[in-house]
Structure formats: C-alpha cells, structure tokens
Amino acid sequence: MPDNFLAGINIFFPDPWHKKRHNKRRLINQDTLQLFSQKLKPGSTLHIATDWEPYAIEIIDLIERSSDFSFLNEDFHIRPIIRPETKYESRGTRLGHQVWDILAARG
Known about the structure:
Elements: E1 6-12, H1 30-39, E2 40-50, H2 53-65, E3 69-71, H3 87-94, E4 100-106
Parallel strand pairs: 1-2
Antiparallel strand pairs: 2-4, 3-4
C-alpha cells in the first residue's frame, strides 16, 4: 500500500493484552502509530476505541508524544455516532468498563 493512501483507520476494541508481560503484543504502539502516519493522507483520521483504561491511557500518551497526530476530541468517553456498538463494547460495559473513543487527525 502506498504512503498517503488511506482516508482513515478505525480500530475498535483491539486485544488489550492486559498482563504486563504480554503488553509487547499490543497492536497500538510507537511503531504502528508511525506506520499509520505514513499510510494515512494528511488530515485523515485515526479512531481507536477500547474499554481497557490502562491501554487507553497508553494510546493517548503515544498520540500526545507524536508530532504526526493531533486529537479531534477532548472527552474520550463520548461514543461518536459514526461508530457502531460492538459486541466487545457491550460485554465491556456489562462488566463495568468505561469505553474510550480516541480520535486523532494526521497533520
């Protein structure tokens, strides 16, 4: 896939790999964020939703440290109407997890 090709990337409820020794397997990390930046067109959106708070905070921190992205939302707990409710979201909310919707634009 060529660089500057995608109009957006949506990642809804990636596996959080909640055990510390497995965190290296998480989909969202510095390397994949750099890859997303290369493949997204300028102004395109990256939308990540998760119900695992430590993972959400890690993702937010990665985006904050990136010079390639800027946040499109300030309240990460409001589900955009463009995102359908998934079975993972339903399960997470039944378990008492709060859902985080993180939206960022590529600069």
